[in-house]
Amino acid sequence: MKLIVGLGNPGDEYKLTRHNMGFLVLEEFARANDMKFKINRRFNALVSEGIIGREKAFLAMPQTFMNLSGNSVRSMLSWLKTETGDMFVVMDDIALPFGAIRIKPKGSSGGHNGLNSIIDFIGGQEFSRMRIGILGRKNVKDFSSYVLDRFTKAEQKNLPEILKTASQACECWIRKGVNTAMNKFNKYGG
User: For residue range 143-188, what is the model confidence (pLDDT) as tens digits?
Assistant: First the structure.
């Protein structure tokens, strides 16, 4: 079982905001693989299941708000009996140029509150993650407001291709592992 967790905030007011890049990627992945999301109250998440290649894939978008994502993730890992090595977390990254993809097999939160929550709740950093750049301009004064702002028209124009590429990176991670995904997709953007 492979678990892919997309990070974001629930609610229509956050739908097309930069901080919801993880949700947007999982929605694209589900669409491309004919998977449907449904609410799972046990995990407080929207979830979907499917078969990718020979692997069972479980997609999850915690509905706890970004800063509390770890509680949802911990309950999923426990219930699904999935090891952290079989988890892939997808999120935005304000330190990367818009659309850049960076996949790593493990590491610190890098200041990302959602990732920090997961690390705290599961007690470790030993899981793969994909960061997608959201920095579309220089001189951002208030990072908190910036990540919760909607994408600009120019960003929205480029978003479908970015989401498609990130979705393909998720599939590559499931089928071929983190090292292949890093080698193939870390070259995108910036």
Answer: 778 888 899 999 999 999 999 999 999 999 999 999 999 999 997 6
Indicate whether this model's pTM tops 0.90: yes
Q: Which of 75, 107, 74 is nearest to 91 (CA)?
A: 107
Closest CA to 27 of 40, 37, 14: 37
SS3 46: strand
Q: Which domains does the chain have, with CATH numbers?
A: 2-185 (3.40.50.1470)
- Please confirm, yes or no, whether 19 is among the known catalytic residues: yes
> Which residue type, as a one-letter code, is found at position 54?
R
Of residues 2, 18, 19, 112, which has the active-site annotation? 19
> Helix, strand, coil % (nearest 5) of the chain?
45, 25, 30
CA distance 131 to 88: 11
CB 170 within 8 A of CB 113: no
